[in-house]
Amino acid sequence: MNSRRRSGFTLLEAIVALAVVSIVCIGVLAAQGSALRAESIANARLPLAELARDRIAAVDMFDGSLNETPDTLKVGTFPPPYDMVQWHVRVEPVQGTTSLWSITAVTTSGADSVSLSSRRYRETASPSR
Amino acid sequence: MNARRRSGMTLIEVMVALTIAGIALAAGAAVLGFLTDQQTRAIGNAVTRPASIRASLRDWIAGAQLTTAGDVRFAGSRLVDAANRSYSSLEFVTSAPTPVAAGGDATTRVKLVFAPATGNVPAQLVAELSPFPAGQPIVLPIRDSISAFDIRYRANVSRASPWIDSWVSTSVLPAIVEIHISAPREDLLTVPLAVLVGERR
């Protein structure tokens, strides 16, 4: 800052300073980008979660024994506009019990997938409520 | 870079240059942020609204109840519009949480009202929610521009039990309620929604 002796920065020093600043900028932008990606993934999975709930509800409404659920409750696709979403449902007794069932519905659309699990008590003798 | 004569830039020059560059970057980032914000909000609304409304409808119907107090009834009927097309309406009291009552003992009267198309106004579906037995109602738009609204009922979960077009009762709840919303533009709400009334544990 002394006007008699304007030594100043060299180009090299300025380049280094700019490099540091741009690395910080890149970090901020990368963080923002990944936040946006996370949001879009969340948005894509929300309907999948609701559709998985739908499939568990379908098992709830099945009046037969959960030992032998029909194929129509095990795997399929949804009506449009969700015809690109595949689902499959696994129903199995919770280990060591006879009347407690674990129901897992998985909905898949491309790379996005949602798995929803629930447990139900159903006496094997009288399946309907 | 000449070792003999290191004139270079002064600190002030570098600071001014960096400040200008910083302001330009900040402005660019702000504009970019604003644009992406607008876009994600639009996409987010289009996705989250149908999903949350569908989940609410399911919860409200699953929590439908009949009590001896007042004029509680489960009333799902068929009506006919001016063009002689039939459509459904449904009114019930639920113990599920709603925007007007916390749920449990604080119950809500839910009325699903389909307003058929009149003139240029396309048909729309709204939910009238009022705290039960008394309180200020609110109107919640469910879906606009729909072409049909049909609800059918089953007396029990047995597959032999037939679908019924209307269900009006003060003493018996249907076991299953199935809602069909048809619309030119399809989304999560146009996927048929079948709900088991009451909890099955």
User: What is the percent of helical residues of chain A?
Assistant: 25-40%
Based on CA atoms alone, the radius of gyration of chain A comes out at 28 Å
- The poorly predicted ranges of chain A are none
The helix/strand order of chain B is: HEEEEEEEEEE
| Number of separate helices of chain A | 1
Total strands of chain B? 10
Shape estimate of chain A: elongated
Instruction: Give the tally of β-strands of chain A.
Output: 4
The proportion of residues in beta strands of chain B is 25-35%
Physical arrangement of strands within the biggest beta sheet of chain A:
1-2-3-4
Largest beta-sheet characterization of chain B? 7 strands, antiparallel
Q: How is this structure best described in words?
A:
The complex is a heterodimer of chains A (129) and B (201). Chain A is an alpha+beta fold. Helices cover 39% and strands 24% of the residues of chain A. Chain A contains one helix and four strands. In chain A, β1 (75-77) and β2 form a beta hairpin. The radius of gyration of chain A is 28 Å and the shape is elongated. Chain B is of the alpha+beta class and 201 residues long. In chain B, 26% of the residues lie in helices and 31% in strands. In chain B, strands 1, 2, 3, 4, 5, 6 and 8 form a seven-stranded antiparallel beta sheet that branches. A three-stranded antiparallel beta sheet of chain B has the order 7-9-10, covered by helices on one side. In chain B, β4 (107-115) and β5 form a beta hairpin. Chain B starts with 10 loop residues before the first helix and ends in a 5-residue tail after the last strand. The A-B interface holds A 1, 6-14, 17-18, 21, 25, 28-29, 32, 36, 39-40, 43-44, 46-47, 49-51, 53-54, 57-58, 60-63, 78-82, 120-121, 128-129 and B 1, 6-14, 18, 21-22, 25, 29, 33, 36, 40, 43-44, 47-48, 50-51, 54-55, 58, 156-159, 176, 186-188, 190-196, 200-201.
List the helices and strands and how they pair.
The complex is a heterodimer of chains A (129) and B (201).
Chain A: H1 11-60, E1 75-77, E2 86-93, E3 100-109, E4 112-121
Antiparallel strand pairs in A: 1-2, 2-3, 3-4
Chain B: H1 11-62, E1 64-65, E2 74-80, E3 86-94, E4 107-115, E5 124-132, E6 138-143, E7 148-154, E8 167-169, E9 176-182, E10 193-196
Antiparallel strand pairs in B: 1-3, 2-3, 2-8, 3-4, 4-5, 5-6, 7-9, 9-10
